Each structure stands twice: as structure tokens, then as C-alpha cells.
Amino acid sequence: MKKTILLLILLLLPSAAAAADPLLDQPRWSLEVTGGTFTPSLGNWSRYYGRRDMPEYATSLAYKFSPRVELGVGAGSVRGQGQAYAALHGTLVGNVTYELYPVHVFALVRGVVSEGQWLVPYVGGGWTRMFYQKKVQDQETVRGAADGYHVRGGLQFALDHLDQSASNRMYLDYGVHHTWFLIEAEYTRAVARSTSTDLGGTSYRGGLLFEF
Amino acid sequence: MTRTRFSLPLAAASAVLTIFFILSPASVDAVEHVVPTDFASIQAAITAAVAGDSVLVEPGIYLETITLKDGVSISGRETARTFLSGNGNGTVISADGPINTSIRNFTFVNASIGVRSSNNPGSVSITNNVFQVGMGGVAVAIQTSPLTEVVNNVFFQNGTAVSCDSDIKIINNIFANNSATISNTTVIPANIFNNAFSSNVQSIPTGTAAVTGDPLFVDPGNRDFHLRENSPCIDAGNAAYTDNFDFTQSDIGAYGGPFADLTPFPVAGLTITSSTDTSISLTWSPNNCYLMTSAAAPGTYSIWYGNASGDYNGQDAEGGMSPSPIDLLSPTVSFAMTGLNPSPTAPAAPVLDQPSPRDSKLVLAWSAVSGATGYKVYYGIASQFENTLDVGDTTSHTLTGLTNGQTYRVAVSAYAQAQYFIVVSATYGTDQAFEHESANSPEVSVKIGPIRESFLSNVKTDFPETVTSFPPLSNSRRGCFIATAAYGYYSAPEVQALRDFRDRYLLTTAFGTACVEWYYRHGPAAAAFLNAHPGFKPAVRAALMPAVGAAVFMTRTSTVMKAGVFLMIGSAITFGLMRKRRAGTGGLR
Which DSSP category does B438 fall into? Predict the structure, then answer.
């Protein structure tokens, strides 16, 4: 029930805020598209998956209550290919495909102090539901979800100043006020209660942020 | 496998023509460019060609937009199997501008426009093609190209068959199932002769000597537009044209006239009806073209066989008296190959790799053996000969349904059995002045005769086991069937407590895991009963109450709390026992 109320607030607040705020020319939404790596918190990962990290792709959409404060939702995808283990034989056998699909509801604070700022730091965090799927060759596929939290922080660099004419076209053609390049780090913790397994980890991502 | 045999008069005529072309100055440099043998695409061949050259297209499906060149003609090897597709839109062939060309023996499908010629004072000959571009397309679009000839084609299921704005020649064509046949916007054509019209939405104008009624195509659903016997289009063409196979008055349609493709439609429906150690019985669908079924000059079929796919050099039918191909003497659609002598040799033994364990399974792999047509897997506990599986022609197999931890002995053998690969072809008129054979039917195969088995491979021993994968996770949606049914929904707190107890305590021991597995085998039936009789749910909830309470206590309380409660219970039991003992001895009054 609490999650439903939170979601409703998230959906309804923008309309209320827009109705109350006459300065509609300011960007109200942030759209992030990022990619990077995800390093699980679990130890021993590389033994089964050959490397410490996995590729991750993520996107998020947030409503800006002010130039500094946002509330939004995001989702991502993490996928790794590894091998299963036959303990009595002491050998790795069969392929394992491990997939995570984190869904976030978050609040974010951006360090905006002036219009035309080149570099903006930001921090945020919120609730996470981590959906997982593990396919083991010749065995049953395991699926489930775990709840947890995440925190993240990063830096965004204004791209508008690099090519002002392109920036103007983005605004005129697509309504995009500002385009940023961002790098960020994120820590997630989501423990599957059935096996006390922390599905979270640390992400390092880069990407683009569009404000419209 | 195509054979073309000419009779003596035709061979002589051919030789004369060859000498004529060799001596003719204009033909000295003429080149035939073959697609895809010489060029990967039709357009590439046309680009490379010069005036006087020709482009011959082998059977296949070509998705191209083709622009023709002056003096370069293009033709398909077989009308029925050489497809030009517009891939749903666009113009397949454009012959714009001042060019002379001919387009022959193609099947046009799936296009906005099949052939377009515009502003062309040259001669464009469109003959012996099938147009089925779709009900939204135009098969032939002619604009300001008065010397265009559209002769001996089939127009089937087109939006507009022929769209033109000048008085072009439209002769000996079949128009069937089109929205519009001939659409002329400026003049009433005077050169429309001997065309057949059937089931078109609009068939005006029909011109002179029009033929009506069902043209009796063999199988338009499979794009076989040859004519059946008694078709009104047979010998009903314009008198100025003669057929190139019987030299009578031309048939109407794509397979008549002086430039008709004489290749029969491939045989379909070939099946093996039965076999013994020395015989194979076959049947196939008849080719109902009138050149095959004519009582006066019937066509025939040929059986091609061999012991390798695509290699039809068999020699042993009828005890060696009927090597491949077996030419049948009548247009029958069944045949029994008898007197076969399959004599395979035993292959070498394969080498078995160490099995790979899985949960209740062993994954096997072994080396391929030359000449083997199949493999057998032997496995058992005390002996590998306890069970045998014929796994066919593969070099891997997974044994299933095994017991984890139980060691199995496994071995493999290879075997060889003679396999016959067979196709059938159709041939027109053995007693006419020519003989033309179709492409082969789809191949069928069968194994017959004795099986020669190799020695056994090396024997391997191994045991299956539950494979663990990292990280440890379980299906969070796999719940308690009975509790879910009793409490009404999966996420009820009581059901969650039972799930947590299962995952934290039961699944951590072998006995507990066995109990859970037993429950998941039998629980669904009880849950189904409960759902069918909801009146029992309150009673089941009451019965589950102690279990739910225990589960909540075990999963929701801290270790200190558990220790305290267990200490209290233990103390109470101890105290009770002491009281009972004292009461028995009379120590307490």
C-alpha cells in the first residue's frame, strides 16, 4: 500500500506543481540514458563468471520540483554469463545466464547554483526492487525479486556550451533545454530473503542527461 | 539433374543455327552473362553487358530493382522457378528511354510494378512471363512506348494487369483473377488478340478472338500455371504464333508460343510408403500438365537414387539391372525399387569423453566415426549393458532420470546401415521431337538392410549430482500451495512466513529438502481440492495456525528471543518432569 501511495504521489505531483508554477519555460523533466559496469557485492564472482563486473544499461525519468530537487523512477539491465559448479566433482559444468533488472524510485539533489553552470554535482538515493533471473543449462530457471535501497552520486557536464547552435536546435526541434554528459557511481543493496543473498553492487556509468 | 535430348532434325537445325551465328559479324562478340554464375546480381550482369549481349538468370528468388540497357535482353532459365520480387514495393524492371530489349521467362511477384517502360521509342518484348505482383500492384505499366509487345504471359492476381496509353500489342495472354485486365487511358487498343479472360473484376477491352472460361491451370496456388488437359487455352492462340514444342498453333499463356520454357514443373509430394531390407516403395503427386497427361504423347518420371544426399549414382536396384536414373515407361505416380543390395561395413568404435554431471543427468559426448549412420548408448549401474538407447546420427546425448550420487557405467557404439536418398523428376514427351526434364523433387531418404555395429567404445563411469550455480537464489514465486489456497492470496503474511521458514530452515538440510520436494509433488492436488471446496478453508486455516505461529516465531524473532523462549520451554518441561517424578515418589505433598 505504501508503495502504491508513493507511486501515486509521484504521478500526481508534477501536474500540481506545473499548475502552481507559472515559469513553464524552465525544464521540468530529466531523462537519463546511461551505460557502464556493475560490480556485484558478492565475493567470488569472477570464479564463476570470469570477471569481476558485468555490463549495465540504465535509464531514468525524473520530475524537477525545482532546479535542484527531483523525484523520479529508473530501470536498468545487468547480464552476466558464467558456469555452474558440480561440487562433488569439483568442476565447472554447464552455462549460467544471470540477469538483474533493478527498478528504482529515487530523489535527487543537484548542485545548481547559477544559470549556465558548466559542472554540476548531484547525489540521490531511494528504494530499489531488484528483479533477478538465473538460467542454468539443463536445469530449472530461477526467478524472483528482492527489495532494498540505493544511493548514487555523480557529476554532469554541460554540453550546450560546446555547440550553442546545436543546443538551440535541440530546444526548437525537441524541446530539450539542456543536454549534459554525466558520470556517476551507484551503490545498491537488495537482499533476497530466501537465501540472504545481496544482489546489489556498485555501478559506474556514463551517459547523457536531457532536461526538457 | 536436368537432361535435354534433341532429336536428329532438331540437332541438325541447331548446328545450322550455330554456324550461322558464328559466321554472322553481328554475333561474333555476343556474350551470354549467367546470373549468379558470372555475376552476383542481375543488375551487375546488365551493367557489364553491351548491345547484343544477353543475361540468363538461373532459378532462384531475386530481390532487385533492375534497369535495362539498350540491346541487352534478359531471360530466366525456368519461368516457374526464376522469381523477380519487388519485396512488397517498387518497380522490378524499368525499360525507360530509347532501348530495345526483351524480358522473358520470369515470374514476377510482390511488387508495385512488375515491368515499366516509358518514353521508349524502341522495341520492348515481354513474353512468357508470369505476373503475380499482388492486388495492389500493376504488372506491366507502359507509357509512351508504342512498340511494346506483351505476348504469351499469365497475369494472375494483380491490381492492374496491363496499364498503357498507346496501342501496343497484347496477344496470347491469360488474365485471371485480376482487379483490372487492360487499362488504357487514351486510345482504344486495336492490337489485342487471342487473350483469355477468367474471373477478373474488370475485363474490358477483350479485343479480338478472346477466350473465356476457366483456363485450367495445373496448380495456381503453388504458382504452377501450366495448362491441364481440356484447357480452352490449348492451341487457341493467334495463328501468327506457333508453339516451340509441337509446332501447332500457339497455346495461350506463359507456356505457349515460340519462346515457351519447356521445363516441367518439379514433382511434389514424394514420400516413401514402405520399405523392406531389399525394396523401397515410393509415391508422388502427379504433374497434371497436359504435356504429361496427354494420352497421345504422355510424359514420364525418372527415379534418381544413391547412398549419399545429393549424389544419385545408385547402381544396385533390380540386382544391379536398374542403375540410377530409373526411367519409367508410363506416367505412373508410384514405384517400387526392388532387388536392392544394401551392404554396409561396420564402422570403427567411437571414443567417449568423460561424462559431464548435471542434476539427475549425465551429458555424454563422443567422437564422430566415418561411415556411421547412427550411435547407440549403453549404460547401467552394475553393467553398461543394462540399458541401450539408439540416439540416431548425433555425437552427444544427455542421459536423464538418473539418481544423483549413483555411479553409472557408460559406453557408446557406432553403427552403419545403408541409407538411400531418392528424388523424382518429370519429363515431357518421350516420343516427341524433344525431351525436357524438370528439376528434382525434394529429397527423401530411408535406411534399409542389415545394421553393422562397431565394437564398444571405452567405458566411462560417473555419477550425476545437483549442480549449484552462483549466487544462491531460489524461486521467490514458488509458494505454499495449500496455504495460498487457504488464505486466498500468495502474498498473505502467513504464507510468506511459511515460505521463509522453508527457505531458511527446511532447505538447509537433506531431510528438509526431501520433505519440501514431497510436498511440491503432492501439494498442488490438495490445493486444487481446497479451491474446489472453499468451505474447508476456515478449518484448514485453523489447522495451519500452529505451523504459521511456529514459522513466524522462527523467522521473525531475534536469536536472543529464540534462545530465551527455548530456555523457558525447556525449563518448564524440566520443572514439570521433576514435579511428576517427585509426585511419583511421594516426595512432594
Answer: P
Contacts with B285 (C-beta within 8 Å, 6 or more apart), sequence order: B267, B268, B269, B333
Identify residue B93 by its one-letter amino acid code: I
Write out pLDDT tens, residues A83-115.
888 888 888 888 899 999 999 999 999 999 987
End-to-end CA distance of chain A: 31
The beta-carbon contacts of B379-382 under 8 Å, at least 24 apart in sequence, are B379/B408, B379/B409, B379/B410, B379/B411, B380/B408, B380/B409, B381/B406, B381/B407, B381/B408, B381/B409, B382/B409
- Which of B467, B473, B477 lies nearest to residue A84, judging by beta carbons? B467
Cα-Cα-Cα-Cα torsion B58, B62, B67, B68, nearest 10 degrees, comes to 20
Which residue, A64, A71, A58, A30, is CA-closest to A186? A58
Any bridge partners for residue A39, and if so which?
A202
Q: Global pTM?
A: 0.60
Task: Say which amino acid occupies B577.
Answer: L
Give chain B's mean pLDDT: 87
Q: Which of B249, B212, B248 is nearest to B232 (CA)?
A: B212
Q: Which amino acid is at A27?
A: P
Q: Which residues of A touch B467 (CB under 8 A)?
A: 84-86, 93-94, 136, 138-139
Mean pLDDT in residue range B125-137: 96
List the one residue out of A138, A153, A133 whose CA is nearest residue A199.
Answer: A133
Shortest distance, CA B538 to any CA of chain A (angstroms): 26
- Contact between chains at B473 and A85 (C-beta distance less than 8 A): no
Backbone angles phi, psi at B482, to 5 degrees: -70, -45
The amino acid that residue A188 corresponds to is T
pLDDT at B508: 66
**pLDDT per residue over A123-153, tens digit each?**
999 999 999 999 988 777 888 888 999 999 9
d(CA A184, CA A76): 14
